[in-house]
Write a structure and sequence with these properties.
The protein is built from 10 helices and 9 strands. By secondary structure, it is an alpha+beta fold. β2 (105-115) and β3 (121-129) form a beta hairpin.
Length: 271
């Protein structure tokens, strides 16, 4: 008489156990991926001051005038909004060392957005130096602020980061990594993927190119070298983990393009 209910109860318990076994590894992995540290308020304020400083605005005027679209005195650049923290795919995450609980991305710089009188926009990167925060790069467009805002709408509280090797932007929230542009969709699909699956993909793609690898030993992973100070990047490349702006200053690359010690980066493709 009680066989049916007992069987149903046993089946329900088996299903619950199966679901637990299925979900636990993902939940555990999500919990093992800590969030990268956010910049403190003082750092954000100092970066904002540097981005909005008169010398920076003068440099921006020359930046917007460099292609002849308008004269520098007519550029009238202004800073739009606050600076944002910009995170890049972490080499420690790519290494995928057993038992290592590391963030998916690391903070590389803070960026503000400048707008010229004709509506063109540029991203102004700042980095900490021995002299305090300084502008180290100006890039066409507003990718940094735009994707940070897009990621915040899609996954509030998530970590927006860039995989610079393919110019892919993502947001990671919990165990999910979601694409924010077409390059990211091409890499992981429109529906996104799990943190574990994303780690497997980037490990396959880049683990042999990390600092200390044979790729690095050949001098192929060190960012802009001292022999090419006029290099212009297009948003992707063969330089997986040498992209930090502090490397620009360390390599003695300031003074590019007559813009007062600022490296200029031109983006040739958008998505």
């Amino acid at each position: 008489m009680t066989t049916g209910p007992i069987k149903r109860l046993f089946a329900a318990g088996t299903l619950a156990a199966a679901l637990t076994l299925t979900l636990t590894p993902q939940a555990a992995h999500a919990a093992s991926v800590p969030a990268p540290p956010a910049p403190d308020a003082a750092s954000v304020s100092a970066a904002r001051d540097v981005v909005a400083a008169p010398d920076t605005l003068d440099t921006l005027a020359r930046f917007f005038a460099r292609d002849g679209a308008l004269a520098a005195p007519n550029a009238a650049p202004r800073i739009d909004g606050d600076v944002v923290a910009v995170y890049m795919l972490s080499p420690e995450f790519v290494a995928a060392r057993p038992g290592a609980a590391v963030p998916i991305a690391r903070r590389e710089f803070l960026a503000g957005t400048a707008v010229a009188a004709d509506g063109r926009r540029a991203s102004v990167w700042t980095a900490d130096t021995a002299q305090g925060p300084q502008v180290v790069n100006i890039a066409e467009g507003d990718d940094e602020a735009r994707y940070v805002a897009t990621g915040a709408r899609l996954a509030p509280g998530g970590v927006v980061f860039r995989e610079p090797q393919i110019n892919a932007w993502y947001v990671q929230a919990g165990d999910r990594v979601s694409p924010l542009n077409a390059d990211a969709e091409h890499a992981i699909g429109a529906g996104g993927t799990t943190v574990a699956a994303y780690q497997r993909r980037v490990h396959r793609a880049y683990a042999d190119k990390l600092p200390g690898s044979g790729y690095d030993a050949k001098g192929l992973a060190g960012g802009f070298g001292p022999t090419d100070p006029g290099a212009v990047r297009s948003g992707s490349g063969d330089d997986p983990f040498g992209m930090a702006p502090t490397a620009f200053a360390a390599a003695g690359l300031l003074g590019v393009a007559g813009l007062g010690g600022v490296v200029v980066r031109v983006r040739r493709r958008r998505s």
